[in-house]
Amino acid sequence: MSINNNNQEAAKSREQLKKENASKPAKARRRRVRVRMIPIWLRIIIVAMLIVISLSAGAAVGYGIIGGGNAKDVFKKETWTHIVDLIEKE
């Protein structure tokens, strides 16, 4: 029974707080200010860098380990022109 009474008291106090805040002017109400540790523009840059790193690591693993080639060759232009020629071959 005591738990139920505590919940009812908490609900009453929440309702009272809402009524009190509604009666106060907008400037008197306290707003919670969220401080971001990492700005949004920096988050976008970090995500873009992580995408580039994961794409290059995936290409190196795919070409070097799975494909049986040298992992460093994936960063050469000749390798990609050869791959494109194989795909576009009629």
TrEMBL record:
Bias type Polar residues, positions: 1-10
Please verify whether the record's keywords include Transmembrane helix. Answer: yes
- Pfam families, A to Z: EpuA
Alphabetically sorted, this entry's keywords are: Membrane, Transmembrane, Transmembrane helix
Q: Does the keyword Metal-binding apply?
A: no
In this chain, the stretch annotated as Disordered covers: 1-29
Q: Where is the composition biased (Basic and acidic residues)?
A: 11-22
- InterPro entries documented for this protein: RNApol_su_b/EpuA (IPR024596)
* Membrane-spanning parts: 40-66
> In its UniProt entry, what is this protein called?
Hydroxymyristoyl-ACP dehydratase
Q: Which organism is it from?
A: Cytobacillus eiseniae
